[in-house]
């Protein structure tokens, strides 16, 4: 626990509260000594003595969160915050935990409260902007982002060990897009930027993050910026961020420093600008495109107008500007049968910039999948003056992206071999002439860090040419998000190391060895020496169970007329409220299964399950292996199975099973992360590798 909470004074001075105070202090002392079990015991006793003890509730919630018991932690913290709503740290923690479990609206509400309590702090405003961004409310997100940067236009991330290079990184909040990582609660700058600034060597590089939007009202800020060795323009989208890029260029013009990715070069890299640049290139096809700005016309009308005015031929691509990863992109083969609903809804919501792009075929048929048309998308990165391979995504759909390509390629592992070949030797895989032609085209862009998506044309009329889908610096670097040692992760390793060297050379400082960020845990490879037995489905006993139940119940019961037949509330809450009202007790509901019970001058805040349930019980009911052992010891029937934290051992157990298995996190709840009817090696691997699982039960 990074920081222990501030102790709040007692309220009543009653003996029970004094006892809870003493136990709370003992819990604090135990936590300072890393004695979590002892602290849990003291907190449990404190809440038996005084069930609404604010200090104990908050500390118990923090301990639960350390053990990933976020739902229980949220319930306890809500009890504390309801009593003491002016505690900004508690509101912030509650927002963080609510985000972790996906309750984004409630998290945003709590962050609003944190902003109210800290009106002069920029951090709560930035988090509020990111939370709105996660919910897709861009207008509110940008409002709070602008409020944040007005109070703090730049921030400095000092090197952890020693500053060997200082980078002035340019950002925008007004025309960029913020989001938040549910797991880490880190703020992510998404649309309009790449993530390279966050991958620079944090031990030896100091990064000054400057939001250029403030220059409109505060031009004097340029004089207040700390000294730097090099400017890195992290703003990458010429359409969404046009005004910000003009402001960024002013910064570069005023400060006499070398610049990586000069803003004017990014502005020239629009889809329309790229087409003009490469339309006469004999080796590269950058498809003809037309931009329709500030439009709310229907998508079909936009396509029809482009065909009429610019000579496009079906099929064409229509996409909305400012989105990456194939978002809001459609291939239109036939105007009458195409479903434009997704695009039309976005266009109706607010004016958009749309592109219509001539489609060029890159698909092919392979004898290993003779019934499927394959669509490849190669990616490479220009760093300095050298082009590096990144990956090939291949899928059975024209809109190729990671989530579509990854399972398809793992089902057809020869595609992974082709990708590996490209990553390790792009010249041999693609052909020397094509690779050199692409590298020369990328140099013409005038940017030192720039990505390209492309594929060889399969149109006989364009044999030997490369079709370029995208050229821009907005593509994100995945070096620390991929399995360590994977061929694609190694490719990103080379790109990131090259970027480090490029920054060092551009800043004209002495070089040093950069230990790159580690990737994720290596991906499990199904062992070939383990035979996986066929899984025979067990007979379905549903009908027999219903018959057994009907025989013992007699006539079927009909609860539809019951006052408690209400799926909006838990039945225990409804029964409690009904009984209380019968006795003249007023009941008020609160979020988190809390009720306020009032009778005359007496009032109590009541939570259905806690805090009288000891913390040990909370921890126990989340450990399925322990509960399974307890049930078995008491002779209660429970499905066979074992707990594992090693995937190899788990797979060997699974392979020996003869019936389909359930794979689930040992500490999960509400069916989160559960995979049922797992019958094949690939299904087992997918079930095990679901995000957030750190121990599994088969």
Characterise the protein shown here:
It comes from Halomonas cibimaris. This is ATP-grasp domain-containing protein. The chain is α+β, with helices and mostly antiparallel strands and 698 residues long. It is 40% helix and 18% strand. It contains 24 helices and 24 strands. Strands 8, 13, 14, 15, 16 and 17 form a 6-stranded mixed sheet that branches. Strand 18 (586-590) and strand 19 (594-599) form a beta hairpin. Helix 1 packs antiparallel against helix 2 (36-49). The longest helix is centred in the last third of the chain and has 21 residues, at 487-507. Residues 610-615 and 691-698 have low confidence and may be disordered.
What's the short story on this structure?
With 698 residues, the chain is of the alpha+beta class.
Structural class comes to alpha+beta
The proportion of strand residues reads 15-25%
> How much helix is in the residues?
25-40%
Strand tally is 24
Question: What about the largest sheet?
Answer: 6 strands, mixed
Mass-distribution shape: globular
Distance between the termini: 32 Å
Compute the number of helices. 24
* Overall average pLDDT: 86
Low-confidence segments, ≥5 residues, pLDDT <50?
610-615, 691-698
Radius of gyration: 30 Å
List keywords for this structure.
single chain, 698 residues, alpha+beta, six-stranded mixed β-sheet, five-stranded mixed β-sheet, globular, disordered C terminus
What's the helix and strand layout?
Layout: H1 15-32, H2 36-49, H3 54-66, H4 70-83, H5 88-100, H6 104-117, H7 122-134, H8 138-151, E1 154-157, E2 165-171, E3 178-180, E4 187-189, E5 205-211, E6 230-233, H9 242-254, E7 259-260, H10 263-267, H11 271-278, E8 284-285, E9 289-295, H12 299-310, E10 316-320, E11 329-332, H13 341-349, E12 352-358, E13 364-366, E14 369-383, E15 386-395, H14 402-411, H15 414-424, H16 426-430, H17 432-443, E16 449-456, E17 466-472, H18 487-507, H19 542-553, H20 571-582, E18 586-590, E19 594-599, E20 602-607, H21 615-620, H22 624-633, E21 643-644, H23 647-656, E22 661-665, E23 675-678, H24 681-688, E24 696-697
Parallel strand pairs: 2-5, 2-6, 6-7, 8-17
Antiparallel strand pairs: 1-5, 3-4, 9-12, 10-11, 10-12, 13-14, 14-15, 14-16, 16-17, 18-19, 19-20, 21-24, 22-23, 22-24
Helix pairs in contact: 1-2, 2-3, 3-4, 4-5, 5-6, 6-7, 7-8, 15-18, 23-24
